Amino acid sequence: MHFGSRFRGAALAMATMSAATLLMTACQPGSDAADSTATPVGGGATKPAASSSASPKPTTPSGGTGASAKPAGDSTPKAPASTPAATATPAATTKTCAAESLKAFMYQAAVRPPGTGTGAAIVEFTNMSGASCALQGYPTVAGAANGSPEKNRPLTVTRTGPSSKVVLAPAAKAWVKLTFVQVQGEADGYCVSGSDPVSYPTLVVGLPGSGANQLALEDGVLAECDNKVTVTAVTATKPS
């Protein structure tokens, strides 16, 4: 009986020590039990939320998977459209020849009305610039009395033939033909209309958009009747 009493006493003591150990373990800070079940009364410190500085996971756009999907708003530069190779400038966009880019001179035409006056003259234009330029249209013509442009006397112009743009490469030429009312007879001659013949030392010949040139005949003196002239448009074919 004494052994049974001792055994029961020892067992009770061991049970008491186990209970105390469990109680102390439950009260340790940071234990799983305290984190999951213990909420301080009165709103004490709670478990902190996950840090906001963590890098967010990338969102995969709809229709794509993982890294192979192209994110919206992709800023990858697009390849530029191909640039056409340089080509000859078309006539429609070639600039009109400037007055200073043209060299002009005037000579008597081979084919002219019968008579003793000038009859007809050719004005030749040469592109002296280093780039192509264009001429188009009919010339204006005025006689320069005493060779002075400020004393110009415009001639009445009759246009003949079609007009088209003529593109002149550097050093290329274009022409217009002027046909006058011919002086008749000998010496000072006469005009069929009854007016007096007129002689001009120079003519002022203008082209649309290209200014005017004051020109003397290379061979002879300009004499005409009635201050009238028939003109062709600028042409790339040399007239006779």
UniProtKB/TrEMBL annotation:
Chain ranges of the DUF4232 domain: 97-234
Q: Which regions are flagged for Low complexity bias? A: 46-92
A Pfam family that the UniProt record links to this protein: DUF4232
Fetch the InterPro entries from UniProt.
DUF4232 (IPR025326)
Q: Where is the signal peptide?
A: 1-33
Q: Which domain of life is it from?
A: Bacteria
Which residue stretches belong to region Disordered? 29-92
Which keywords are on file for this protein?
Signal
Put simply, this protein is called DUF4232 domain-containing protein
Organism, as annotated: Streptomyces populi
